[in-house]
Each structure stands twice: as structure tokens, then as C-alpha cells.
Amino acid sequence: MTGLLTQEQLEDALREVGATRYHHLHPFQLRLQSGACSRGEVEAWALNRYLYQACIPQKDAIILARMDEAPLRREWRQRIIDHDGEREGEGGIAKWLKLTDDLGLDRETVMSGRLALPATKFAVNAYLSFVRDRSLLEAIASSLTELFSPMVIATRVSGMLANYDYVTKDTLAYFTARPVQAKRDSDFALDYVKTHARTPEQQRAVIGALEFKCSMLWAMLDALEHAYLYAKPWPDAFQASERGERQAAE
Ligand SMILES: O=C(O)c1cc(C(=O)O)c2c(n1)C(=O)C(=O)c1cc(C(=O)O)[nH]c1-2
């Protein structure tokens, strides 16, 4: 790619990144939605993904602090409210903790992150560093995976409800609000990126930012798949068999 793309071509290129690299294609995601995951794997997924959820408002606060214009900040701050809520017990992070609670995981342990896989921590930190160190345009473009999240969320929720009897609609309440929020957020970010990426270099940079973000989401699922299916978890990480053994012993 050398020349300047039209806005439509840029959007097509971004959508192509999602079609080929988003985590809806990852084997662990397919396993999760098909009912093939053990209870321990579902727990490991929820526990690790908590760290991603928890980092989202932090990364949005970094982006917000880099915005010079009040209208932009007004738009972006809603994302932080969506995740943190207006008060204790509200917002996306609280809903994610409802999921880990329902799975029987200890809240304090989940929130401490101490049983998360090393790769999950590295991935989340890479996202925070990316939005801090790259241009504001790239930081905004890295949120564009949300263009694709409504599709993967719908498949995941229906698959999990159909296949795991310990998962209810209430357990997955986190996902109810997300598709609408993700559409609103990604419509705004896509429009911003299309109008602000005005040179071939900037266009390459925003496509690269979306590829980076897809690779970060992919790496988190690679780590789960490797640790809980093919190898064994890092010694200090969540041991998927522990709960089953404990239950069996009870
Ligand atoms: O369930 C998912 O597969 C999924 C994916 C993504 C994403 O693509 O980054 C997000 C979310 N969920 C999500 O719930 C969320 O709040 C969110 C915020 C962001 C972001 O980068 O700003 N991505 C995502």
C-alpha cells in the first residue's frame, strides 16, 4: 500500500484487519462458545479477562488526558463512566465481578490479579503503553476492535448460555449493555480516524494500531489455551483443576 486511500478504502482496510485477525477466530473463543471448555477453563478465562476489563478505563483516562479539545474529551469520558459506573456497584467492572462471583471465584483474588497468567499481564500493560507512547490518532484507532465486538459477544453469550448449565443470563449481564455502547464508541472512533488519518503514513499507522490491538487480544487467548489445554499454568497462576478437586473432596 503506497498511495493515499479514500475514507471508504481506509474503512475497508480496517474491517479487513478485523475479518482476518480479530479474536472471534481464535480457537479458545471457538471452544468457549461451543461448550468444549471445562469449568476450570471458563473460570480461568473470566479471571484473566478481568485484568483487561480493569485496564480499559485506565487506558481511556490516558487517552482523555492527551486530548486537547473539550468536545473530544466530553465524548471520550463516557467510556470511563461505562466501566467504572457513577457509584460503587455500577458499571462494567462491577458487572464483570458479578460474572466471576457467580463462577465461585473469590473477588479479592480476582481483583488483585495475582492468579492471572504472566502473558495476560504483559498484554494488558502493552495496551496501556501503546496508548501512552503512540500518537493520539493511533491510540484512538486501537479501540476500533469494538467495531467487531458486538458480533463476537452475541455468539459467545448464546453459546455459553446453551452449553454451560452454571451460566445464566444474569451471570453474563456484563455483555447486555456492551453491544450498544461498543457501536456508539466505535462509530465515533471510526469517524475520527477516517477524518484525521490524512496521509499514507497516518493511514498505515491506524491500520497498524488495529493490528496491534487484535494481536494483543489474540495473545491473551493464546496464553489461556496454552496454559490450560496443552501445557500447564505458570506456578503462581490460577490452577484450573484446583476447584474441581476441592469440590470432589467436599
Ligand atoms: O467481549 C469481547 O470480545 C470484547 C472485545 C473488546 C475489544 O474488541 O477490544 C472489548 C470488549 N469486549 C469490551 O467489553 C469492552 O468494554 C471494550 C473496550 C475496548 C477498548 O479497547 O476500548 N474494547 C473492548
UniProtKB/TrEMBL annotation:
Alphabetized HAMAP family for the sequence: PQQ_syn_PqqC
Domain Thiaminase-2/PQQC positions: 13-222
Catalytically driven reaction(s): 6-(2-amino-2-carboxyethyl)-7,8-dioxo-1,2,3,4,7,8-hexahydroquinoline-2,4-dicarboxylate + 3 O2 = pyrroloquinoline quinone + 2 H2O2 + 2 H2O + H(+)
Gene3D superfamilies: Heme oxygenase-like
InterPro entries in alphabetical order: Haem_Oase-like_multi-hlx, PqqC, PqqC-like, Thiaminase-2/PQQC
Highest taxon above the source species: Bacteria
Protein name: Pyrroloquinoline-quinone synthase
GO biological process, one term: pyrroloquinoline quinone biosynthetic process
Gene that this sequence comes from: pqqC_2
Described function: Ring cyclization and eight-electron oxidation of 3a-(2-amino-2-carboxyethyl)-4,5-dioxo-4,5,6,7,8,9-hexahydroquinoline-7,9-dicarboxylic-acid to PQQ.
Molecular function as annotated in GO: pyrroloquinoline-quinone synthase activity
EC number of the protein: 1.3.3.11
UniProt family annotation: Belongs to the PqqC family.
Pathway stated in the Swiss-Prot or TrEMBL entry: Cofactor biosynthesis; pyrroloquinoline quinone biosynthesis
EC main group: oxidoreductase
Keyword terms, alphabetized: Oxidoreductase, PQQ biosynthesis
